[in-house]
Automatic annotation (TrEMBL):
Residue ranges of every copy of the FAD dependent oxidoreductase domain listed in the record: 51-413
Region (Disordered), start-end ranges: 1-20
Keyword terms of this UniProt record: Oxidoreductase
Record-given protein name: FAD-binding oxidoreductase
GO molecular function: oxidoreductase activity
EC number, as in UniProt: 1.-.-.-
Organism: Cobetia marina (Deleya marina)
Entry annotated with the keyword Manganese: no
InterPro entries: FAD-dep_OxRdtase, FAD/NAD-bd_sf
Oxidoreductase as UniProt keyword: yes
Domain of life: Bacteria
Length: 458
């Protein structure tokens, strides 16, 4: 690990041209808890050649390198601007959901009809197995909590919505979800005082995300991949189908390139990815270790991954080592990220949900930039069949589990395989652009105000 610059909390993908060079990790609990990062190959120090280059060493870049090496014998070179898992990968809630993008299953049905929703659901189950088997792999150390997924209704109307969603899951998709009343939530899971009931999904695995990423990195390198940290791609040219990726230490020449830069994608990286996702900030806090009395007072009986139904939703869980992790969306720009009012928003939620924890110390507070696709669905594609350029992006806040499957598919595409699932909407088109993109952030301010009102009244 080579640190060249301190962490900059004000970095903003819509304002800055690059996520930096050798920037230190964000101050997340995962970083503290995971211990030292695995060995990497240091910065690029000379011109070099590679068959395949992956840009970005988050879940996607690392797992794609791992699958390329393990399943296709391709020893890729990963170029990471900063550190292994530096982006969202080291800052998320570690919630591995059965979710492809951000749309609910009823939205799939409305958008594509029952048949396609069934196919997407079957595909998501198959993909979730990729994630599940990695969390059980003896070479992977990620502290998995395979307890399912609890969606807590924050209002009576939200509970009605969950009941309808659960009926759809059971009757149309054959996915055995259950609804629970408030008393059952309190008795079996947690004493969240905002709960009006919940929907329990059988699939859902919470992990220590940075440990998972470190495991991907170790396996990838053991199978021959190289991971160059502190090596941002600053300029990209293509001549006769060969890519030249310029980093501060040298130019890397490659036959094929996989882009795995998610919400940290600079608009100037490549025209095929410019403005194809909307970077949206999410935050997270971790409390000090809770006492047994506090755990009892909050009725925290499970380490299940939990989300509430607000538009500006909270995601939270009791970690196995007895800390509460909780986060939401609040700040919009990098310049405003450290404003104390965003931390206050999370503290207020802790106090509402678990009054015994009002005012508790939260030694870790960090944020990251999620890659929200303009239609809320991710893509794993070769956007231009004439160019050996591939990407997997647009996870829309659900990348912990999805990135495992997406990376396996991305590796297969890069290796030249044609995917049998290519008719599904996550494979058959590039990420869409958005006509209002230049003013979307202005719209986001208004939308957050609207969501805050909606979350109070419905
Ligand atoms: C606070 C927060 C909470 C979240 N919680 C959850 C959750 O509980 N469950 C869930 O499923 N998802 C969650 N997510 C989303 C999830 O973390 C992401 O979907 C996932 O980590 C994306 O992984 P990635 O590898 O695609 O991208 P990232 O981990 O963001 O990695 C992108 C990497 O690309 C590098 N890069 C960018 N440009 C260049 C360049 N030019 N050259 C070289 N390198 C470059 C960056 O430095 C970065 O390391 C959360 C996100 C945040 C911010």
């Amino acid at each position: 690990m080579t640190v060249k610059q301190p962490y900059n909390p004000h970095y903003d993908p819509l304002k800055d041209t690059s996520p930096g060079e050798g920037v230190d990790y964000a101050p997340s609990y995962w970083r503290y808890h995971a211990g030292p990062p695995p060995e990497d190959d240091g910065p690029v120090t000379d011109d070099m050649e590679a068959d395949v280059v992956l840009i970005g060493a988050g879940f996607t870049g690392l797992a794609t390198a791992m699958f390329l090496a393990r399943e296709h014998g391709i020893k890729a070179v990963v170029l990471e601007a900063n550190q292994i898992g530096w982006g969202c990968t080291s800052r998320n809630g570690g919630q591995g959901h059965l979710a492809w993008g951000r749309l609910s299953r009823s939205q799939w049905v409305r958008k594509w009809g029952v048949d396609m929703a069934r196919q997407l659901h079957a595909n998501s189950l198959e993909g979730f197995e990729v994630f599940k088997s990695l969390t059980q792999d003896p070479e992977v150390d990620c502290e998995p909590q395979p307890l399912g997924n609890l969606l807590i209704a924050h209002s009576p109307q939200a509970m009605q919505h969950l009941e309808a969603e659960s009926r759809l899951c059971n009757n149309i998709l054959g996915y055995r979800t259950r609804t629970l009343d408030r008393a059952t939530v309190h008795r079996d899971f947690m004493g969240d005082q905002e709960s009006h009931g919940a929907m329990l999904e059988p699939e859902g695995i919470a992990v220590q995300p940075l440990k998972l990423a470190y495991s991907y990195a170790r396996i990838a390198r053991r199978h021959g991949a190289r991971i160059h940290t502190s090596s941002p791609v600053q300029h990209w040219t293509t001549e006769n189908g060969i890519h030249y990726l310029q980093t501060p230490g040298g130019t890397v020449k490659a036959r094929a390139v996989g882009i795995a830069t998610a919400g940290y994608t600079s608009p100037n990286l490549h025209s095929l990815t410019a403005y194809r996702n909307m970077p949206i900030m999410a935050n997270s806090v971790w409390t000090r270790t809770l006492t047994d009395d506090e755990i009892e007072a909050c009725g925290l009986r499970s380490t299940i991954l939990t989300t509430d139904t607000r538009k500006l939703r909270y995601y939270y869980r009791l970690l196995p080592e007895k800390r509460l992790q909780i986060g939401t969306r609040s700040a919009i720009s990098g310049a405003d990220a450290q404003n104390a009012r965003h931390l206050d928003v999370v503290h207020a939620a802790i106090a509402r949900k678990f009054p015994a924890l009002a005012g508790i110390e939260t030694p870790w507070f960090s944020h990251g930039w999620m890659d929200i696709s303009h239609d809320m669905m991710p893509r794993i594609v070769q956007p231009d069949p004439k160019q050996q350029i591939f990407y997997s992006q647009g996870y829309s806040g659900n990348g912990v589990s999805f990135s495992a499957y997406a990376s396996r598919q991305l590796a297969a595409l890069i290796a030249g395989q044609s995917l049998p699932e290519r008719h599904l909407p996550i494979f058959n088109s590039p990420l869409p652009a958005h006509p209002l993109r230049p003013i979307r952030r202005m719209g986001q301010h208004l939308l957050y105000k609207y969501f805050q009102v909606l979350d109070k009244v419905s």
